[in-house]
């Protein structure tokens, strides 16, 4: 028998299934969502991952113009990213939910895209999933680079406040975004003073029905996200963060280490009506110090002499 090679007998790990590319549709194609509402596609507006973006409008006799207020994202139904994104939009981005949140906080706008509809479109043997959302303008990454990689301090502070509003809303609805970066922050198409956080393909529901999910590392999800901004936990395959101890160390850093006792606060003593801090630790007094504080007593060796 010929000698076995080293590769023989070693099980080959299965490569992840390759995602399919979306099929291009001609302008004028009509899609019907799950609510039986019809949408007409315009020209292609871009590509994201394995999906295509089209300008769109509600179905009418006219064509979809360049100023269309909506875009439709289309992906093959077997692909996962749009399915994950849809779960977030359907649970947390319906117009009435966002409107109620804004009214309760008296906000002029909230930078979370609204969900307008979704469904499947079959053409021949191919089946695609689609989602309808608002149209947006340029992203902050392009603005940043076009401005010499500098933003005024006032603009940075305003962006930070708006982003905090967005994250508060997302977290309050049991989700984390897991892919925050400048290229996912888009300006409104109609109002360049408004910024929106988009792309929820990696959004993670961390606390379904108010019950936090267990921390669990998943090799299949390792390194998901954008490498420059991916957290340590995301590199391990989980978007959920481990519990943080009092001193800011993660649970795995303190595992097996003895717990450190905290020093009790020092008590104040009153001496002659004045407050004085007690010494942190009392040391035993030296013999010389004791001798100096006590009256001197001569010690003699042997028996004492009798008085005559």
UniProtKB/TrEMBL annotation:
Enzyme Commission code: 2.7.11.1
Domain Protein kinase residues, every copy: 39-308
Residue ranges, compositional bias (Basic and acidic residues): 1-11, 213-226, 243-255
GO molecular function: ATP binding; protein serine/threonine kinase activity
Basic residues biased stretches: 298-308
Stretches the record annotates as Disordered: 1-26, 213-308
Gene3D superfamilies xref list: Transferase(Phosphotransferase) domain 1
Protein's UniProt name: non-specific serine/threonine protein kinase
Gene: LOC107751725
């Amino acid at each position: 028998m010929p000698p076995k090679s080293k590769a023989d007998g070693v099980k080959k790990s299965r490569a992840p299934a390759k995602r399919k590319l979306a099929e291009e549709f001609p302008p004028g194609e009509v899609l019907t969502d799950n609510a039986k509402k019809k949408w007409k596609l315009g020209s292609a507006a871009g590509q994201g991952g394995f999906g295509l973006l089209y300008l769109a409008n509600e179905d009418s006799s006219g064509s979809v113009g360049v100023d269309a207020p909506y875009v439709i994202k289309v992906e093959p139904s077997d692909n996962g990213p749009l399915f994950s994104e849809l779960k977030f939009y359907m649970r947390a981005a319906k117009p009435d939910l966002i409107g109620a949140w804004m009214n309760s906080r008296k906000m002029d706008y909230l930078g979370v895209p609204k969900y307008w509809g979704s469904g499947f479109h079959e053409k021949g043997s191919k089946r695609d999933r689609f989602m309808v959302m608002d149209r947006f303008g340029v992203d902050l990454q392009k603005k940043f680079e076009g401005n010499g990689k500098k933003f005024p301090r006032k603009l940075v502070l305003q962006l930070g406040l708006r982003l905090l509003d967005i994250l508060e809303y997302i977290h309050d609805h049991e989700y984390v975004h897991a892919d925050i970066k400048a290229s996912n922050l888009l300006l409104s198409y109609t109002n360049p003073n408004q910024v929106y956080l988009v792309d929820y393909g990696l959004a993670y529901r961390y606390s379904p029905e108010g019950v936090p999910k267990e921390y669990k590392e998943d090799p299949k999800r390792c390194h998901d996200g954008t490498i420059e901004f991916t957290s340590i936990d995301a590199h391990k395959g989980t978007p959920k963060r481990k519990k943080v101890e009092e001193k800011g160390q993660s649970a795995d850093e303190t595992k097996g280490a003895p717990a450190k006792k905290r020093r009790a606060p020092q008590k104040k003593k009153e001496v002659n009506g004045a407050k004085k801090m007690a010494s942190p630790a009392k040391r035993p007094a030296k013999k010389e110090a004791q001798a100096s504080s006590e009256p001197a007593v001569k010690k003699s060796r042997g028996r004492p002499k009798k008085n005559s």
